[in-house]
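From the methods appendix. Each design record in this collection lists the tokenized structure first, followed by the designed amino acid sequence. Records were kept in a plain field format so they could be parsed without special tools. The example shown here is representative of the layout used throughout.

RECORD:
FOLD TOKENS (284 positions):
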């Protein structure tokens, strides 16, 4: 039996990029879209066998097509824990008339939101807020996205990719205010998103640098978890970790998911399949 000091403050499951679709594999990219239903079922069996506060999928629930949600969401219904989602770029690979309904289809509170468990605050970002694909062509954010992408490309930025995105000014202000309040209230903050922001990579958000600067400016910031880069990645600033989880859709039969235990002095990630296990010390 664990000592009280070794009992985690909270525990949750992580899935990244199932990217399901009823299509043939993309062998060159090693993506096996149909296999994600079985992999997700296997991950849920592990999650259901332990006590968790929630399970978060870090975006790209589907690869494409609105009807793909009808196939994969029933698999999530077998989960006995609270099931949470955030939005990835592929979740918007649907017909234009469905773009405004993606968040509702996934049952999320909004395209970005937050929640608290005990003394931990979770900020859930919408990195597709200003992007070339998440809104109608006549939406002001679409024009703004084209401007941001063009400016980055002119600078030769490695993340000047059309499949990345950025925060709106409204969302950046919301995140700033959330961090300020958490700091004042003595909460610890873990940020969850689809897109990486660190280390530099072609998959990073267009505005990754200002997001990192904002987050690492607060003592309450404990880390950033994301997906999108299916190979996974890791970076840190002043002992604060930035973890990119590997994509479930990759490989024909190897799974990847994680269970995260949060303690007062560390975060332990137990990786399954291709996912790495890590012990992340919390900076004093």
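DESIGN:
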């Amino acid at each position: 039996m664990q000592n009280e000091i070794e009992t985690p403050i909270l525990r949750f499951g992580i899935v990244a990029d199932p990217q399901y679709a009823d299509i043939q594999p993309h062998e060159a990219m090693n993506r096996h879209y149909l296999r994600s239903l079985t992999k997700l079922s296997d991950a849920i069996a592990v999650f259901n066998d332990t006590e968790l506060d929630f399970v978060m999928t870090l975006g790209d629930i589907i690869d494409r097509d609105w009807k793909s949600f009808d196939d994969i969401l029933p698999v999530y219904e077998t989960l006995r824990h609270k099931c949470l989602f955030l939005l990835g770029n592929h979740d918007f690979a649907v017909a234009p008339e469905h773009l405004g309904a993606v968040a509702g289809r996934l049952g999320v509170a909004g395209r970005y939101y937050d929640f608290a468990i005990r003394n931990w605050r979770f900020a859930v970002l919408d990195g597709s807020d200003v992007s070339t694909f998440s809104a109608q062509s006549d939406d002001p954010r679409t024009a703004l996205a084209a401007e941001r992408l063009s400016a980055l490309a002119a600078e030769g930025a490695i993340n000047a990719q059309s499949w990345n995105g950025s925060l709106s000014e409204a969302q950046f202000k919301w995140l700033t205010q959330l961090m300020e309040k958490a700091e004042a209230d003595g909460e610890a903050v873990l940020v969850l998103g689809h897109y990486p922001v660190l280390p530099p990579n072609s998959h990073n958000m267009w505005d990754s640098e200002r997001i990192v600067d904002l987050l690492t400016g607060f003592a309450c910031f404990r880390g950033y978890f994301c997906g999108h880069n299916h190979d996974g990645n890791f970076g840190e600033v002043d002992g604060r970790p930035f973890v990119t989880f590997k994509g479930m859709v990759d490989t024909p039969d190897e799974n990847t998911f994680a269970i995260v235990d949060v303690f007062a002095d560390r975060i332990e990630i137990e990786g399954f399949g291709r996912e790495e296990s890590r012990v992340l010390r919390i900076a004093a």
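APPENDIX NOTE: DSSP finds six helices and twelve strands in the chain.
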